[in-house]
């Protein structure tokens, strides 16, 4: 890949990559849904209802679309290498994924802790057994994993590499983070603070992309954040996850706990993500030294 792209060219190819991926994934999801549900009306209703099976299908087809256009646009057309895309070695990849997973989970845990200590967020006993909890969290992780990986390949894949060639790493991280937040505009109960926190999460994930472990560190961090929230029965970017045994109550004040949008809608997440950004930035800087 050339050392630098002009900004218009980097933006143009990034938009093409995202639009073609989303369009392909949408068509694939709709086609599979029609086959499964028997009619276009039933397929549309099933997909828009947002159940676990529909979410899994959408995650898998998005993953397929990002893989396809990473190869077609990134590798074949633009000549990107594994190093450009930060697909690190087999030894460093799993280690980076594990570290990212821990970082994302700890950040989400800090946000929840602030919500409990500083607000009146709490968990109460819900119906179900430990076995029910383990089964449902396993199924939830099965949905969240391909969703996290596909989103990272979509945002912190070809587009961030292109924009970094034109703007530098810092500029690319910020621009992609803004786009990442705007992609969540249609989420349930979204708020301006929620979008701001999602942009901060995008900065955290962009820095994780440049940490040791590359794209896999970013994937792990994304999955760690989402999994910690979902498996503790809290909404993830406004999307609820029903987990047996636990019932999360966000309580008040909503500006701190995030209310019905989940922790990402409150200042507790702002504090946690600020800390995560600072720590990850130091990690990246130390490794680059």
Oligomeric form of this entry?
single chain
Mean pLDDT: 91
Q: Span from first to last CA?
A: 24 Å
> Which segments are poorly predicted (pLDDT under 50) over 5 or more consecutive residues?
none
Whole-angstrom Rg:
19 Å
> Strand fraction band?
under 5%
The rough form would be described as globular
Number of folding domains? 1
Strand order of the largest sheet: 1-2
Measured as a percent range, the helix fraction is: over 70%
Biggest sheet: strands, sense, closure? 2 strands, antiparallel
Strand/helix succession:
HHHHEHHHHEHH
- Derived from helix and strand composition plus strand pairing, the structural class reads mainly alpha
Topology at a glance:
Layout: H1 7-37, H2 40-49, H3 52-77, H4 92-118, E1 122-125, H5 130-155, H6 158-182, H7 192-209, H8 215-230, E2 246-249, H9 254-257, H10 267-288
Antiparallel strand pairs: 1-2
Helix pairs in contact: 1-2, 1-3, 1-6, 3-5, 4-8, 4-10, 5-8, 6-7, 7-8, 7-10
